[in-house]
Amino acid sequence: MTPNIDRRRLIIGAGLGLGALLLPAGRMLASELVGASGFTHNVASGEPGPDSMLLWTRYVAPDNADEATLRAEIALDRDFTRVVAGASVRTGRYRDWTAKLTVDGLQPGTTYWYRFIAADGSFSPVGRTRTLPVGDVSGFKLGLFSCANLPVGWFNAYAHAAAREDMDLWLHVGDYLYEYGIAAYRVQDRVLEREVLPAHDHEMVSLLDYRMRLACYRADPDLQALHQRAPMVALWDDHEITNDAWEGGAQNHQPEHEGDWNVRRAAAMQAYREWMPVSDEPWKVYPIGTLATLYRTESRLVGRTRPADIASAYRAGTDAALEAFRDGPWQDPSATMLGLEQERWLYHALRENARSSHWQLVGMGTILGRTVMPQETLGWLRPDAGERSVQAFHDNVRGARLGVPVWMDRWDGYPAARARLLRAAQQADAELVMLSGDSHNAWAYSLLQDGEPAGIEFAVQGVTSGGIEGSLATDPHNVARAFVATNPELDWCDTARRGYAMIELTPQRISGEWVFMQDIKTRTLALSGTHRMSAEKGQRRFNRG
Predict the structure, then answer these.
(1) What percent of the chain shows pLDDT beyond 70?
(2) What average pLDDT does the segment 392-415 reach?
(3) What end-to-end distance do the CA atoms of the chain give, in Å?
(4) Are 291 and 357 in contact (CB under 8 A)?
(5) How far apart are CA 484 and CA 493, in angstroms?
(6) Are 414 and 337 spatial neighbours (Cβ–Cβ below 8 Å)?
(7) Among 369, 462, 453, 413, residue whose Cα is nearest residue 153
(8) d(CA 99, CA 66)
(9) How many Å apart are CA 88 and CA 101, to the nearest integer?
(10) How far, in Å, CA of 289 to CA of 138, rounded?
(11) Which of 167, 241, 286, 474 sits CB 3.0–4.6 Å from 380 for a disulfide?
(12) What is the mean pLDDT of the chain?
């Protein structure tokens, strides 16, 4: 088990070097910042290639300096007796003291150790990373994560995954952090030791807000251990910015109170790229030899169009209004999750890479599988469920009778774009595997298009964020059975537990194991169980029975 968090260390680490160290409303934490300099937030690696790796750290220069130069070393052993590459990078206040650089000239499929060295000779913590393999690859394992809300629970899933010895890569498909202010959380839902900065009641809006929140998350020792253990491919979803974001706005952005959307979006993107081991490329391909190709996508800020407005159809209160929505705005072929440029890129890449690698793994922020609400859920609503929640369930059940899915903010809300993606995979003869998150619950879909198998989807549960179980008062097994019986694409689900997933590939089979933590309200590595599902190459659906 990992040691207890040092709360003072978290506050110090989160507040360092953020602009002029000014907190809202004059709330200076100067006494907490005395002597705080040097390497403050551990190390991380990402953007793996067969011969390259991006390395990240954060270093605050002493003596009020504005800049600092660091040197990175990468070696074949943890003691650095066999250093094989290195490079220098400069950082400063202008980028919140974060530093990242890409080291080239590495060997494929090789484990390396890396560290940063400051001008005064001090060293960062040591990280471990691994380049992608080339040629014929017999096996590969990656960990899949989504939806980590720090105030509501401990990152036990990160700690459990970081303790593994069998992982090649982490994939985080979004909601790495949450934008909400403290006032958004009920006291009974929070772990009181899990305080976040900035500590004001309103959401993250400014560059300073986003930097501070990322710094607070990156001070968590379990998340640090995860980054320190293996490289990560990371993509944002909506809460890295604000809830239900699209290219021109968001459900949770009110211009009259929170300013210009483009300013807020730019601030969120800048802070994320400063604090994460990611490149500035909006989407990217990662080849895993002949075994697989992994795609990092962007489905929020670059090309996603405004979702269709189903709320007005529900408010009308008639089936005719809902049918008009279903047959009209919902089917709009101009609606897109990825934007037309990224769509073309992905479809061409699928067609090209399906010829040279067995599996096509698409990392996606939201779920592709079609889901409607089971009618039985109306009888399971908690007695204390809020009026809005009750109304939403009634609306969704009514929509289900007319073939309208639950969540308009994911691919279900963009059926024409969904069909384009699945048809592109079918036409490429690709072994499509969607790796997604967002819903906070665990799902396994055998995807269909035009009545034919099109691929499979592993949708991972949240690290800490609560799911649909929060509104329902029944045995979770009842909920799972109802969802599977109601949705032809859905083979299995778990609507109650938190954790992560492990994806294991061989040339002929892909398997996924959902790992469920026993608890998130206390720090523990104990599990409540696991669930495994697999598919054979050429099958394009999960094994049943």
Answers:
(1) 93
(2) 96
(3) 36
(4) yes
(5) 7
(6) yes
(7) 462
(8) 14
(9) 8
(10) 10
(11) 474
(12) 92
- What is the spatial distance between Cα 254 and Cα 241, in angstroms, rounded to a whole number? 13
| Helix, coil or strand: residue 40 | strand
State the DSSP H helix or E strand holding residue 140, giving kind and residue range, or none if neither: strand 140-145
The tokens describing 502, both together, are 């492990």
- The pLDDT, as a whole number, for residue 545 is 60
Our separate counts of H helices and E strands in the chain read 13, 22
CA–CA distances in Å: residue 93 to residues 62, 99, 445: 12, 11, 46
Give the separation between CA 425 and CA 20, rounded to whole angstroms: 50
> Do the beta carbons of residue 298 and residue 283 sit within 8 Å?
yes
- Please give the Cα distance from 236 to 535 (Å, whole number): 28
CB atoms within 10 A of CB 38: 17
Question: Does residue 383 have a cis bond before it (omega within 30 degrees)?
Answer: no
DSSP state of 308: P
Amino acid at 484: V
Closest CA relative to residue 545, chosen from 491, 493, 485: 491
Per the CB < 8 A criterion, the answer to whether 100 and 54 are in contact is: yes
According to DSSP, the residues that pair with 467 across neighbouring strands are none
Per-residue pLDDT for 22 more than 60? no
Q: Do 92 and 19 meet the contact criterion of CB atoms below 8 Å apart?
A: no
Asked if pLDDT for residue 13 goes beyond 50, the answer is no
pLDDT digit string (tens) for 240-264?
A: 999 999 999 999 999 999 999 999 9
35 DSSP assignment: T
Can you tell me the distance from the alpha carbon of 68 to that of 72, in angstroms, rounded to the nearest whole number? 13
Nearest-angstrom CA–CA distance, 491 and 244: 27
DSSP 48-92: --SS-EEEEEEEEPSTT-SEEEEEEEEESSTT-SSEEEEEEEEEE
DSSP character at residue 397: H
3-state SS of the chain: helix, strand, coil percent to 5?
30, 25, 45
Cα 460 to Cα 434: distance, rounded to the nearest angstrom: 11
Beta bridge partners of 448: 453
Higher pLDDT among residues 345 and 11, named by residue: 345
pLDDT of residue 69: 98
Residue with tokens 């094994």: 543
Claim: this prediction has a pTM higher than 0.90: yes
Q: What is the CA radius of gyration of the chain?
A: 23
Over residues 265-307, the pLDDT tens digits come to 999 999 999 999 999 999 999 999 999 999 999 999 999 999 9
Residue with tokens 């949770």, as numbered in its chain: 252
